[in-house]
Amino acid sequence: MAGKGRVEYAVVDAFTESPFGGNPAAVVLWLGGADADAWMQSVAKEFNLSETAFVSPEDAPSSSGEPGRRFRLRWFTPVAEIEVASENMLQNLQPQLNVLKNFPGRGIIVTAAASPSSDVDFISRFFCPRLGIDEDPVTGSAHCALAPYWSKKLGKHDFTAYQASPRGGKLILQLKEDLGRVLIQGEAISIMAGSIRV
Fold first, then answer.
1. Which residues, 6 or more positions from 32, have their beta carbon under 8 angstroms from its beta carbon?
2. With 0-12 CB in 10 A as exposed, 13-18 as middle and 19+ as buried, what is 58?
3. Residues 136 and 128: beta-carbon distance below 8 Å
4. 6-82+187-197 with 87-185: one CATH topology?
5. C-alpha angle 30/33/1, rounded to 5°?
6. Which of 135, 130, 145 is nearest to 180 (CA)?
7. CB 122 within 8 A of CB 146
8. Residue ranges covered by each domain of the chain
């Protein structure tokens, strides 16, 4: 792919209100077609962030039938593509990462109810050393599993969650059971932009 041009990217800190907090992710606008798996994996390895997202426009109409563009989104860790899945004790958890590498599945979610004085409903941490990420700073996909879990426990559908990694980040969640979806919101700050030579 060398010598074909440049691809624009940004590094965004998601689920935070301040730079260098939350979950850093590279976002690459990919216009070059679908046959670039090896290149995408190489770019993700080069960024060496817990996630690198490749966004490419599609020609299909939106699922609601309304005008507007649809986009395909693919996520990569430095080593693989990801398919889109007490409070004090949790925050101080020191897992044996070499042991976690032997667990089946993508990663391990650990969660607990927040203390009554907290401004969040629950906290969590996410470990996935099998994918080259010892601990993900803030994991939107993990909260797609956590929202239904905490809905049953707390009897509600709207949550504020905190992922208690060293960087930390806050997520606003809304469980839409009738649609089988979890809506995720949070603050984000773009801290870098550039282009990649292809």
1. 1, 4, 7, 198
2. exposed
3. yes
4. yes
5. 80
6. 145
7. yes
8. 6-82+187-197, 87-185
Write out the two tokens for 182. Answer: 């979890």
Residues in the chain, total: 198
Residue written as token pair 């203390």 = 115
Residue whose structure tokens are 């649809």? 70
Q: Enter the pTM of the model.
A: 0.69
Q: What are phi and psi of 77, to 5 degrees?
A: -90, 180
CA-wise closest residue to 160 among 176, 144, 172, 175 = 172
Tens of pLDDT, residue by residue over 20-56, are 999 999 999 887 765 689 999 999 999 999 989 998 8
Domain 6-82+187-197 has CATH 3.30.70.3460: no
Q: Tens digit of pLDDT for each residue in 95-151?
A: 777 777 877 788 889 999 999 999 999 999 999 988 888 999 999 999 999 999 999
Here the tokens at position 6 are: 């440049």
Top CATH class of 87-185 equals alpha beta
